[in-house]
């Protein structure tokens, strides 16, 4: 039952996005324009550490912009309608899955455009891709739950920025460590503990969202 509800809710979000496209196109425009500004500013002085820092800064702000609309764009009447049809666990899981899929697409596009304009310092693409996919999942899980909390207030975007940074900081520290290793020639085996740490953090955040969201949804 839960699986069927999640499947239909995810397909609903995908169909709405394919129909409207304003969210994805707006975020894509933000990512491309930010990368182009970085290209104009840093193209001649770029180094591996600078490249890595700029990439994750762009990914972080792209994730905040992408996920912040998860619950804000849902009206109160529509949320009440969902409340009568689906369980809160299905709703939060569907939002996490949809935002993860959206972030995976954006992260691949961001990496492609960033590498095309700024050059690529990555030595181990497999390691960097694994870190990027798990990191995007973590960003989506954390920001989806915070977006649900922020949607209950009037100043939702400011609250998201305040609450998300301390929670995302462990993700960023581990991800930058792994991506630096991928740039310097590290292997997947050498960074297995960092990848496992990101995976465990993803699981903890999703589990907490699964347990705590029903109380938030009930209010």
Features:
about 220 residues, mainly alpha, 9 helices, globular
Topology, element by element:
Blueprint: H1 2-20, H2 22-42, H3 48-67, H4 69-72, H5 76-85, H6 88-118, H7 125-150, H8 156-184, H9 192-218
Helix pairs in contact: 1-6, 2-3, 2-6, 3-6, 3-7, 3-8, 6-7, 6-9, 7-8, 7-9, 8-9
Describe this structure in words.
The protein is mainly alpha-helical. The protein has one domain (about 1-219). It has helices at about 1-20, 20-40, 50-65, 70, 75-85, 90-120, 125-150, 155-185, 190-219. The chain is globular and about 55 Å long.
Question: pLDDT average, as an integer?
Answer: 82
Q: Sheet with the most strands?
A: none
Roughly what percent helix?
over 70%
Q: How much of the sequence is in beta strands?
A: under 5%
- The helix/strand series, from N terminus to C terminus, equals HHHHHHHHH
| Overall 3D form | globular
Q: What's the total helix number? A: 9
């Amino acid at each position: 039952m839960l699986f069927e509800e999640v499947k239909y809710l995810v397909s609903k979000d995908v169909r709405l996005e394919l129909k409207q496209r304003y969210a994805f196109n707006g975020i894509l425009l933000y990512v491309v324009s930010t990368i182009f500004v970085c290209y104009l500013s840093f193209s001649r002085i770029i180094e591996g550490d600078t490249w890595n820092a700029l990439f994750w800064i762009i990914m972080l702000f792209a994730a905040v912009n992408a996920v912040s609309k998860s619950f804000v764009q849902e009206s109160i009447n529509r949320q009440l309608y969902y409340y009568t049809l689906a369980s809160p666990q299905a709703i939060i899981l569907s939002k996490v899955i949809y935002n993860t899929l959206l972030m995976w697409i954006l992260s691949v596009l961001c990496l492609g455009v960033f590498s095309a304009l700024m050059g690529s310092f990555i030595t181990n693409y497999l390691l960097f891709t694994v870190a990027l996919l798990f990191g995007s999942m973590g960003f989506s899980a954390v920001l989806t739950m915070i977006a649900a909390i922020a949607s209950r207030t009037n100043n939702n975007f400011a609250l998201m920025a305040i609450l998300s940074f301390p929670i995302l900081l462990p993700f960023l520290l581990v991800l930058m460590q792994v991506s630096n290793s991928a740039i310097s020639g590290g292997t997947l085996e050498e960074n297995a503990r960092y990848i496992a740490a990101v995976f465990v953090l993803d699981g903890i955040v999703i589990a907490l969202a699964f347990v705590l969201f029903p109380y938030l949804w009930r209010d």
